[in-house]
UniProtKB/TrEMBL annotation:
It comes from Umezawaea endophytica. This is NAD(P)H-dependent oxidoreductase. Gene3D superfamilies: 3.40.50.360. Residues 3-150 form the NADPH-dependent FMN reductase-like domain. InterPro entries: Flavoprotein-like_sf (IPR029039), FMN_Rdtase-like_dom (IPR005025), NAD(P)H-dep_reductase (IPR050712). SUPFAM superfamilies: Flavoproteins. GO terms for molecular function: FMN binding; oxidoreductase activity.
Length: 188
């Protein structure tokens, strides 16, 4: 079983991006288990003075451990002002340390996103890919999941009713699963 930690960049209870991750869990392909990360609101602002074994906030230790234990990540983020929401960037900054040996180093990651607008978080996804280049993570190149006018694809309870998006989520998780397996396969 391939375990994927799903991280939403939105703290809203009615977040479309969190709903997208729940849909991904529901539509996950064979051999993939999606686990939702729910600790983002507890992660404090990055402070280098706290970034050592004696002072590390518990929420940060938990975040790093969960990323470290997962086989891969599925990150669904809103786009805020054409970029990555601060709360998500902050969590990535914590997770990116210690540099060169962080939980994000070599981690396989699929970046997806949902917006109410017409561009489906395209600009935020480009920005996130740049951040994950700095962390030496392995971001899945395709398929790309840009869920535009997302509010029209979920019902009032936050359940996805758009089969095209459901299929895309399944394909994305299958591609992430296969990327992880390929990398772990012994060299021929
Ligand atoms: C501060 C802020 C900035 C936003 N900037 C953008 C933006 O640049 N592009 C975009 O498509 N939507 C933007 N939006 C709208 C979000 O796409 C929309 O609120 C979305 O539902 C947020 O994701 P969530 O439902 O997961 O919380 C912005 C929303 C907020 C609150």
């Amino acid at each position: 079983m391939t375990t994927i930690l799903a991280i939403s960049g939105s703290l809203r209870a009615a977040s479309l991006n969190t709903a997208l991750l729940r849909a991904a869990r529901e539509h996950s392909p064979e051999g993939v288990e999606v686990v939702l990360y729910t600790g983002l609101a507890d992660v404090p602002h990055y402070n280098g003075d706290l970034d050592d074994d004696h002072h590390l906030p518990a929420a940060v230790a938990d975040l790093r451990a969960r990323i470290g234990e997962a086989d891969g990540l599925l990150v669904a983020s809103p786009e805020y002002n054409h970029s990555v929401p601060g709360v998500l960037k902050n969590a990535i900054d914590w997770a990116s340390r210690p540099k060169g040996a962080s939980a994000l180093q070599d981690k396989d990651i699929a970046v997806i996103g949902a917006s109410t607008g017409n561009f489906g978080t395209a600009r935020a996804q480009i920005a996130l890919r740049q951040v994950f280049a700095a962390t030496h993570s392995r971001v899945l190149l395709s398929p790309e999941v840009l869920v535009f006018t997302a509010h029209q694809r979920f019902d009032g309870a936050g359940d996805l009713h758009d089969t095209t998006t459901a299929d895309l989520l399944r394909e994305t998780l299958a591609a992430l699963r296969d990327q992880i397996a390929d990398r772990r396969a012994p060299a021929r």
